[in-house]
Structures are given as C-alpha cells and as structure tokens.
C-alpha cells in the first residue's frame, strides 16, 4: 500500500516540478496529468485493501461482501477534483503575494500538492477498509502502524480496540492501516498494554510528564486550517522490531524538554 502511495506522490511532485511556469494554462496542464493518475491510484489502493480484508475474512471463516464503490472512494470530498487540485496553485500565488521568493513559493505549492495526494490515497485505503469491515463478519478493528516512524498519537491509538465505524486519519498525513479483529468482547479495551505503557514512559522521561489522553503538551498544535491537533503528533516513536521498545524522537528538531517545545 505504501508503495502505491509513494509512486503516486512522486508522479504528482514530478509533474509540478517539471512545470516552467504556473499560470492558469500551466496549472490546467498539471491537473490534467495528475488527477487521472491520483484517481487510478485511489482505486488501486481501495482494491488492494478490499482484497486484503477479504483474504483475512476467508482465513478467519467470517462472512465478507466484496466490492469497491468508486464514488465513495473518488468523490469522498463532495467537491470536484479540479477545485481541490487547484489549491497548490493558490498556495503558490498567496506566497508570492506575501513577498516569498519565486522558487520558495513554488515549493510551497509542491508541498500542498503532495499533502493533497497523500491524503486522497490514504483516504481511499481507510474508507475502503471501513466499508469492507462493516460488510463482513468482523466485529472490531485496530489501527495498524505503517512505516518506520510513527507519531506517538498513532502509536497510542494502535494499542486500542475499536468497534465498527469509520476509520479516519488521526491527523494530516496519517498513514495508519487497518487490521480487523475477530471479537469486540475480548477482555479490556487495550490490546497492547506493554507498548502503551512504554510509550507513555518514554514521553514522561523526556518531558517530565505525560498526558494519558495523548493530546495536551501545552504547545497548541493546530492543522493548516486552524483545527486543534494532538500535540503528540510532534513526537515520533520508532519501534525496533519489538526488541528495544519505542524510541522517542521529535519531528523536525531535537528537543530536550517541555520548554523547548514552546520555542518551536
């Protein structure tokens, strides 16, 4: 799944980088190249996810209703793709209007494009997983960490059991996958207490405190749209094959304590 996402993101960023100008006609050409590839990638991600859930259902001996709803995958935003994929150009123009040098403004647009593509790809996987699980004999699911590094918020969420429902990204660029569970009635909400406790212990050791709600480190983290985000998305937990436990790091910088978080 990650490979599909990476290839589509690379295609989009390459198409953006190959443009020599970013006037309306140039943006139209970029969108004409990128949107079909993204949508094909979304469908491929959904089909792979659907097959994965189906295979697990067969192995577990539970019911499963196959199928991918293209509209639910491609049009989940409820607005035309052309409007969404024009936003990187708007981000570039806004940066230029603020006096940002041209090449830096282009990079702003590129980052916006990459973020949109990554979100669309992950939404395809997550939404299909939710639909497939809802149409199966599985009664619950857990979040499956993906990648070599994961934010502490996602790591903590991965230790919990969830009932059927929409599995949405926890934060922008969240790339967690889905793993069905056979029973929602197994003892306890926490399914990996060791990882949960080690993660909180690592945070407490670094900062001198931790928040069991995995939200507030008093840094006021918000999304690009101004919506509150868990401060724990700035903390990176690396899992070393279960041997060393979680190793705590920091996104974008090396912090030494809570006060340093406030200065970044």
What does this structure look like?
With 264 residues, the protein is mostly helical. It has 9 helices and 6 strands. It has helices at residues 2-17, 24-60, 70-74, 81-84, 87-97, 102-134, 152-157, 193-207, 258-262, and strands at residues 140-144, 150-151, 162-163, 177-181, 235-239, 246-250. A 3-stranded antiparallel sheet has the order 3-1-4, with helices on one face. A 3-stranded antiparallel sheet has the order 2-5-6. The longest helix is centred in the N-terminal third of the chain and has 37 residues, at 24-60.
Offer a quick outline of the entry.
The protein is mainly alpha-helical and 264 residues long.
β-sheet strand percentage: 5-15%
Largest sheet: 3 strands, antiparallel
Assign a percent range to the helix content: 40-55%
Rounded to an integer, what's the Rg over CA atoms? 20 Å
Please identify the structural class as seen in this structure: mainly alpha
Strand numbers in spatial order across the main sheet:
3-1-4
Low-confidence stretches: 254-264
Features:
mainly alpha, three-stranded antiparallel β-sheet
Q: Mind sketching the topology for me?
A:
Elements: H1 2-17, H2 24-60, H3 70-74, H4 81-84, H5 87-97, H6 102-134, E1 140-144, E2 150-151, H7 152-157, E3 162-163, E4 177-181, H8 193-207, E5 235-239, E6 246-250, H9 258-262
Antiparallel strand pairs: 1-3, 1-4, 2-5, 5-6
């Amino acid at each position: 799944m990650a490979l599909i996402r990476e290839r589509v993101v690379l295609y989009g960023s390459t198409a953006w980088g190959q443009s020599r100008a970013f006037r309306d006609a140039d943006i139209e050409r970029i969108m004409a190249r990128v949107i079909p590839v993204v949508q094909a990638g979304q469908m491929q991600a959904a089909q792979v996810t659907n097959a994965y859930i189906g295979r697990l259902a067969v192995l577990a001996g539970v019911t499963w209703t196959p199928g991918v709803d293209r509209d639910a995958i491609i049009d989940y935003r409820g607005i035309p793709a052309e409007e969404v994929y024009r936003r990187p150009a708007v981000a570039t123009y806004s940066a230029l209007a603020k006096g940002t040098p041209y090449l830096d403004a282009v990079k702003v647009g590129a980052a916006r494009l990459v973020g949109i593509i990554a979100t669309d790809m992950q939404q395809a996987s997550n939404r299909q997983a939710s639909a497939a699980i809802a149409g199966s004999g599985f009664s619950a699911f857990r979040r499956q960490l993906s990648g070599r590094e994961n934010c502490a918020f996602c790591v903590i969420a991965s230790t919990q059991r969830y009932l059927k429902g929409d599995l949405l990204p926890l934060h922008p660029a969240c790339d967690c996958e889905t793993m069905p569970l056979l029973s929602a009635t197994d003892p306890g909400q926490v399914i990996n207490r060791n990882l949960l406790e080690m993660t909180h212990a690592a945070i407490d050791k670094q900062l001198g405190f931790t928040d069991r709600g995995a939200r507030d480190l008093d840094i006021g983290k918000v999304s690009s749209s101004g919506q509150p985000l868990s401060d724990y998305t700035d903390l990176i937990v690396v899992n070393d094959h279960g041997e060393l436990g979680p190793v705590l790091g920091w996104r974008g910088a090396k912090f030494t304590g809570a006060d340093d978080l406030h200065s970044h």
